[in-house]
Amino acid sequence: MTIRKAVLPVAGFGTRVLPATKSIPKEMLPVIDRPAIDYVVDEALTAGIEHIVFVTGRNKGAIEDYFDRAFELETSLEQRGESKRDILRSVQRTTLPAGSASFVRQQSPLGLGHAIWCARDIIGNEPFAILLPDVIVRASPSCLAQMVAAYNETGGNILAVDAVPEADVSKYGVISPKERNGRLIEMDGMVEKPAREQAPSNLKITGRYILQPEIFNLLEDQGAGAGGEIQLTDAMARLMETQSFFAFEYDGKDYDCGSVLGYFEAVLGHAVHHPDIGGQVEDLIERLAAEMKASRTR
């Protein structure tokens, strides 16, 4: 069955980047000239997703407004003529087609698994994608598009993974590989932040999933796990007992915008590749590096 729907859990507080997220959703923090969530939605759309379910919470109305039409702004830009034409097009691009998005509330912070369960009635009985909005992936084709292509060949459940240095495996959830076929890896388990010597692999789970709808039945009665929250990984481990799971080692670069350093890396990484300012950013980085080197030698 075609992957038509995706869930974006956007109800989190953004505690790792406070106080910046005290008054605006963490997903709306700008990465150059677009909020972080825009990159994630664009990834979903370019992968063929037809309907996006945003699982929101209090004070997240800015996300819904961003993907709505800004009639007054568009009219003002239109009246200014050709000089604002490119800006007008960039604004219009952010408007999601009518009926292509739903917004549901996660009224209590009960964990990622609970957030996904909140989307059950809209997803229905079909496989779907999950994109964690903290993670931006720069890739062409998009990470999810690569996964969908793999899913069309294998079916089952698929998690995006990428290799990290073995010294860093204790920072991430990693998969236990069973058999590899190119970029696709049959897996038989997941381990959250293992000790380096006990890690089954150095392939970290990136924050992109394609799951079968049976996950909702498991989340329905999933008990609290780590941190006292309903964990998606616990339900996936149960689903793995009856369904096939694959990891897909995608081609691209991911950025964790949920941490201060990761957010800064995302801004810098996208600035370097920005079509308008990329060259200037490279010059700026070289100048700042030279200034820092000079200051250390004084």
Architecture overview:
This protein has 298 residues and is of the alpha/beta class. It has two domains: 5-258, Spore Coat Polysaccharide Biosynthesis Protein SpsA, Chain A (Alpha-Beta Complex), CATH 3.90.550; 259-298, no CATH class. The protein contains eleven helices and 13 strands. A nine-stranded mixed β-sheet has the order 5-4-1-6-11-8-12-10-9. A hairpin with a 2-residue loop joins strand 2 (30-31) and strand 3 (34-35). The longest helix has 19 residues, at 278-296. The chain is globular, with a radius of gyration of 20 Å. The relative contact order is 0.15. The model has no long low-confidence stretch (mean pLDDT 90).
Largest sheet, in brief, is:
9 strands, mixed
Strand order of the largest sheet: 5-4-1-6-11-8-12-10-9
Content of β-strand: 15-25%
Identify the CATH class of the largest domain. Answer: Alpha Beta
Number of strands: 13
**Outline type:** globular
Order of helices and strands: EEEHEHHHEHHEEHEEEEHHEEHH
What structural class results from the helix and strand content? Answer: alpha/beta
- What level of helicity do the residues show? 25-40%
CATH homologous superfamily (4th level) name of the largest domain? Spore Coat Polysaccharide Biosynthesis Protein SpsA, Chain A
Can you lay out the helices and strands and say which pair or pack?
Elements lengths: L4 E5 L20 E2 L2 E2 H11 L4 E6 L4 H6 L4 H9 L5 H9 L7 E5 L6 H6 L2 H4 L4 E4 L3 E4 L4 H12 L2 E7 L9 E9 L2 E9 L10 E9 L3 H6 L11 H8 L5 E5 L3 E4 L3 H13 L5 H19 L2
Parallel strand pairs: 1-4, 1-6, 4-5, 8-12
Antiparallel strand pairs: 2-3, 6-11, 7-13, 8-11, 9-10, 10-12
Helix pairs in contact: 10-11
